[in-house]
Design goal:
CATH architecture of the largest domain: 3-Layer(aba) Sandwich
Shape: globular
CATH class of the largest domain: Alpha Beta
Number of strands: 5
Structural class: alpha/beta
Strand content: 5-15%
Helix content: 40-55%
Order of helices and strands: EHEHHEHEHHHHEHHHHHHH
Radius of gyration: 19 Å
Oligomer: single chain
Largest sheet: 5 strands, parallel
CATH superfamily of the largest domain: P-loop containing nucleotide triphosphate hydrolases
């Protein structure tokens, strides 16, 4: 790592827990600058990490030197390798993590993955089938387990642990708490704080309301994936933020304006029981660790 480059914060998790909303609120702050692509993935994608810190630095070329800078890659939390890699590069970094009821998080992750065609051969599995076939859907939800691993590398004071369900009670207080953690002006009010959470889910889940959008996005992604230029287009997409830019445009101009609300079927009782047994021990330990009852996590009360 060159002495002329450092970042101040990294959002490490977790998927489907309002990380895009948080990142947009942070980027609105006049004292903060986010990476040109939200989910850089540098520390967990070996092909990126092996290119060295100079490759990572490119994602922050848009940031002025007088600003607090950082990124959000929610997959980091569940990684075994990432904490050590970040520690080696940025030993004093501040970390942000947002935790959501793990059952609800897994359910949201399932729908997002299904409609983005990430469940591969089991694209049309039910949720119950998917959680038994795809452990990756569940791994992100073992919050206490993952946090204890991160605490081997970073002091507790360097990690801001947030609860997703607190956003609905007072989104402005929620985001201003992060501003204070980052030691920037805490009274700033971002316009993004008034946006509906997880609007991206609607884009993929209510295909009947916006029939041309999802097939078009899937077609373009699949076309690029299967061309000889697959890797080049993948890297270009990450550098320029093409997919995120298109998605955000559609969310703001189609989903939000037309008030498209996702309507997923309720989780089956047997699937909820299955997941509660899986997560019960980890949630119990997390409550003690946070000294909090987590009463907003309805699946565990």
């Amino acid at each position: 790592m060159g002495p002329d480059f450092k970042i101040d914060f990294i959002g490490i998790g977790t998927p489907k827990s309002a990380t895009s909303w948080i990142f947009r609120c942070l980027c609105e702050h006049p004292q903060i600058c986010g990476s040109s692509v939200k989910e850089v993935g540098f520390f967990y994608r070996d092909r990126y990490y092996n290119k060295g810190i100079s490759f990572y630095k490119v994602f922050f070329n848009n940031c002025d030197a007088d600003k607090i800078i950082g990124e959000f890659t929610p997959q980091y939390l569940a990684s075994r390798e990432v904490p050590g890699r970040i520690k080696q590069c940025f030993p004093d970094i501040k970390l942000i993590v947002c935790l959501r009821d793990p059952i609800d998080r897994a359910y949201s992750h399932y729908w997002f993955s299904r409609y983005k065609n990430r469940l591969r051969s089991s694209l049309y599995d039910s949720f119950g089938e998917a959680i038994r076939k795809h452990p990756s859907l569940l791994n992100h939800g073992f919050y206490y387990h993952h946090l204890t691993h991160w605490l081997k590398y970073f002091p507790r004071d360097n990690i801001k642990i947030l609860i997703y369900e607190d956003i609905s009670r007072n989104p402005l207080v929620f985001i201003q708490g992060i501003y204070e953690f980052l030691r920037v002006r805490g009274d700033f009010e971002p316009t993004t704080s008034h946006e509906r959470l997880n609007a991206a889910d609607s884009l993929y889940e209510k295909k009947d309301k916006i029939p041309l959008i999802r097939p078009t996005l899937l077609y373009v992604r699949e076309f690029l994936r299967h061309t000889p230029l697959d890797k080049a287009t993948h890297d270009l997409n990450n550098k320029l933020g093409l997919q995120e830019g298109i998605t955000n445009f559609l969310i703001k101009n189609v989903v939000v304006k037309n008030n498209v609300v996702p309507q997923k079927p309720p989780i089956k009782p047997e699937d909820k029981i299955f997941l509660k047994k899986i997560y019960a021990e980890d949630v119990a330990k997390l409550k003690v660790f946070l000294s909090r009852e987590l009463s907003s996590w309805n699946n565990f009360n």
